[in-house]
Amino acid sequence: MNIHVPSTYEVYRGWQSIQGTGLQIGTAVLLVLVLGAAFGMAVFLLPTFIACRRKVHNAAVVAVVNCATGMTGVGWVIALLMACMMETDTQRHARLRRSEPATFLSVP
């Protein structure tokens, strides 16, 4: 019985033929993972971005709700509703100049 034990060079050449160029495959996988994580974080933090862009009076509250409970899905929807419905700084200043009472969503 004749058993052939491959040398290190033969194993390396065989691995290269299977892998193609390992650097390109590894780089592509890493790039997809990094882009996927970045996209996921952007979607996860969308309520916080909206609250900051709208200049919501209590944007920090939206950020805390988003980060603390956003992973449940329900918390993310609540944070998104808060970001879209809470009063902005401009609305708050106009309301305070007119001395109108605060509503539920405009209480600081």
Indicate the mean pLDDT. 82
| Annotation, overall tally of beta strands | 0
Structural class: mainly alpha
What is the assembly state of the chains in this entry?
single chain
Strand portion: under 5%
Our measurement of the CA-to-CA distance between the termini, rounded to an integer number of angstroms, reads: 85 Å
Number of domains: 1
- Shape, principal axes of CA atoms: rod-shaped
Please summarize the sheet with the most strands. Answer: none
Q: Total number of helical segments?
A: 6
Pfam families: Imm_superinfect
Transmembrane segments: 25-47, 59-83
Protein name: Superinfection immunity protein
Keywords: Membrane, Transmembrane, Transmembrane helix
Structure explained in plain terms:
This protein has one domain (8-87). The protein is 71% helix and 0% strand. The mean pLDDT is 82. The chain is mostly helical. The relative contact order is 0.09. The chain has 6 helices and no strands. This is Superinfection immunity protein. Keywords: Membrane, Transmembrane, Transmembrane helix. Pfam families: Imm_superinfect (PF14373). It comes from Komagataeibacter europaeus (Gluconacetobacter europaeus). The chain crosses the membrane at residues 25-47, 59-83.
